[in-house]
Amino acid sequence: MRLSTILARANTEYYSEDAPQISDAEYDRLKKRNSEIEARFPDLKREDSPTEKVGASPTSGFAKVAHEIPMLSLGNAFEDEDVVEFDGRIRKYLGLTPDADLLFTAEPKIDGLSLSLRYENGLLVQAATRGDGAIGENVTANARTLQTIPQQLEAAPELIEVRGEVYMSHEDFDALNARQNERGGKPFANPRNAAAGSLRQLDAEITRARPLKFFAYAWGALSEPLGETQFEAIKKMENMGFQTNPLTELCVSVSDMIDHYRKIEAQRATLGYDIDGVVYKVNDLALQERLGFRSTTPRWAIAHKFPAELAWTTLEDITIQVGRTGALSPVARLKPVTVGGVVVSSATLHNEDYIKGLDSKGNEIRDGKDIRIGDWVQVYRAGDVIPKIADVDLSKRPETSVSFIFPTVCPECGSDAIREEGDAVRRCMGGLICPAQAVEKLKHFVSRAAFDIDGLGAKQVEQFYTDGWIAEPADIFTLQARYGSGVQQLKNREGWGDKSASKLFQAIEEKRNIPLARLIFALGIRHVGEAASNLIALHYGTWQAFVTAMESARDGAGPAWDDLIGVDGVGQVMAQSLIKTFAQEAERASIDRLVAELSIQDATRPDTQGSPVDGKTVVFTGTLEKMTRAEAKARAERLGAKVSGSVSAKTDILVAGPGAGSKAKKAAELGIEILDEDAWLDLIAGA
User: What pTM did the predictor assign?
Assistant: First the structure.
């Protein structure tokens, strides 16, 4: 996959060229779809994967705003069966029977730019874009120019953050592009990009001249509840003066949800604004609270996306790109074609089997038709986002066409590209001598969820690497010592000056103090994503404890190994990748050089003082009858417990329901406290 390439191109189009092809919302969907693919095919995970990220990092043109409550993305459903499964997951988590009452709201998913409006004592005091979910951009001055955003609320809570979508109607979009053409300006690609670009203007007067609108559909921080249900809360926001979508309805069953989806889908072309699906949310806010969140998405909501749009075009070339793990990823270079309102010029080809017309198990896909350069191909965007090839028209295949031969050597360094048994991906064996791997590792190191150094993005990293200024992460922190003064210094480079160089050096200095979880993620260890890095950091607490554990677990056996694979969310594949990284001499030396430049913050858990299970390791086994396993685990973690999947000498409590087997036996042998479900609930009652 080359989702990272799509995202990198989108950044250039959005931030540098002021001609975006995808919006922040599409950014989120790319990340989520990539996460789903990686869950099914972990060996396909890209070195620059946007997994577990929300939105895009704020730019330097706006002040940053920390969201008091994160603005998360939504999980996706593409088929009716996905909605049935969503309902089933909710019921299973809550322990509800299939015939128990469970209401949902259903509303159109507006295709625009997410915005959070903060009101204090009824007055608008701040407006922020979603950004990366945790940090957004302060666009208060721009938001005040929108007529559909009230400046003052009546009968509102003392504090309320109203969240919704900024969008542009089709009629206003056409008029805006007409004015752009009259002035000789470049027209916008589609309404959502026009809305995003208009709201994010540094000059608020430009925003004022753009016909933007706002739909409210959610909330963040609140000083008092808006109601007991989602539907009631939406009506409350409407009474405060916000526009809410009139197509929002209450559904009593999955069939009602799908029927409303079909109704909205039939009106899609006549609504006058862009939507890309329907959002379902559990109506009862108390149940939403129980269901809680995954790392980047709520369990109680899902977006049912409209079918992907299709287009035919010519496949002009197949290129191979090399990532930081050495994976060789094929990309289809297409004659540009508009699909779903976005110009598409490339599509993922996954791996060599996919090109041959085979899936990961060797079964035929596309009726076994392979993909060749020069083919007439049907392109679609899954969930209106990710370009893929759906079909090949063999009747238009050139007579001179030949099968694509996947390279067996790395196109970047010439090293052997090996495909190990059981791996769907061919990988370069060049390691540190492969420039593509080195550059991609550095790009990952400075990415948003890693060190996130202002002024040092992928473009700057690539240039510094090419010029020999940085070869590994530690070099970033010695950059000022080497190129801050003297004959050859940063401020004298093209595109840099004294001020920009000083700002970069200052930004680098600020990141010497780094949280443990960010450092682990920044190392770019294969299979270790952002969520796993957080879990590992919380488990070990300190860098030294983490490193010592990796060294002790090197043989893949013993207490340290058992403890590692006992971390909830860490399996054997990830564990092997972790210990292999610290066992490799050259890589370990590079890590040590980096750590010598840093001050690493210990991982801290939420304040759970007074919790009877704070800091204890808990294992659940057998059948729980009064709450589901997922709910029990989530509640234990909220109370400060570490939930493990296996019993070891470090286990403090085993909660055993009916059917408990080997885990209960092992716990008894180790003298570990064993509680039944009632005793567990009594223990945590009131906590």
Answer: 0.54
Within 217-268, residue ranges assigned H as helices are: 230-240, 254-267
For 194-239, how does the pLDDT look when each residue is reduced to its tens digit (9 = 90+)? 898 889 888 888 889 899 999 999 999 999 999 999 999 999 999 9
Active site positions, annotated = 109
pLDDT at 634: 79
Residue 644's CATH number: 3.40.50.10190
Phi-psi region of 609 (alpha: psi -120 to 50; beta: other; left: phi over 0): beta
CB burial string 215-224: b at 16+ within 10 A, e below = bbbbbbebee
Q: Strands of 306-449 (E only): list them.
A: 310-322, 328-339, 342-348, 376-382, 386-392, 417-418, 427-428
Q: Name the helix (H) or strand (E) containing 303.
A: strand 301-305
How far, in Å, are 446, 484, 503 from residue 497 at the CA level?
21, 12, 10
pLDDT, tens digit (0-9, with 9 covering 90-100), for 536-552: 998 899 999 999 999 99
Nearby residues of 59 by Cβ (< 8 Å), 6 or more positions away: 15, 137, 200
Cα end-to-end span (Å), the chain? 45
Nearest to 445 by CA among 427, 458, 460, 426: 458
- Dihedral sign of CA atoms 48, 54, 59, 63 in order: negative
Average pLDDT, the chain: 86
pLDDT at 98 > cutoff 80: yes
Task: Decide: 162 and 173 in contact? Cβ < 8 Å.
Answer: no
- The 3-state DSSP class for residue 90 equals helix
CATH assignment of the domain containing 504? 1.10.150.20
Count the Cβ atoms, other than its own, within 10 Å of residue 165. 24
Same domain, 103 and 241: yes
Share of the chain residues as helix, strand and coil, in percent rounded to the nearest 5? 40, 20, 40
Whether residue 317 is found in the same domain as residue 275? no
Do 596 and 646 belong together in one domain?
A: no
Which of 601, 629, 660 is at the close of a domain?
601
| Domain shared by 495 and 544, yes or no | no
Q: What is the pLDDT of residues 287-340, one digit of tens each?
A: 999 999 887 789 999 999 987 677 788 999 999 999 888 899 999 999 877 676
Query: Rounded distance, CA 138 to CA 222, Å?
Result: 19
Cα–Cα dist 109/12, whole Å: 26
CA dist 355 → 99, 366, 374, 419, 422 (Å)? 45, 10, 14, 15, 18
If asked whether residues 563 and 645 sit together in one domain, one would say no
∠ CA 510-513-518, rounded to 5°: 110
How far apart CA 371 and CA 356 sit, in angstroms, is 7
Alpha-carbon span 502 to 479, nearest angstrom: 12
User: Could you tell me if 664 and 654 are in contact, meaning their C-beta atoms sit under 8 angstroms apart?
Assistant: yes
How far apart (Å, rounded) are the C-alpha atoms in residues 128 and 354? 42
Q: How confident is the model at residue 30 (pLDDT cuts 50, 70, 90)?
A: low
Domain that holds residue 344: 310-396
Spatial distance between the Cα atoms of 513 and 533, rounded to a whole number of angstroms = 17
Identify the CATH number of the domain in which residue 249 sits: 3.30.470.30
Task: Name, in order, each residue with C-beta under 8 angstroms of 381's C-beta and a sequence gap of 6 or more.
Answer: 308, 309, 339, 340, 342, 344, 387, 388
283 shares its domain with 331: no
Q: Are residues 358 and 316 in the same domain?
A: yes
Centre a 10 Å sphere on the Cβ of residue 474 and count the other Cβ atoms it contains. Answer: 18
In this structure, the answer to whether residues 489 and 629 fall within a common structural domain is no
Classify 405 as helix, strand or coil: coil
Higher pLDDT: 264 or 43? It is 264
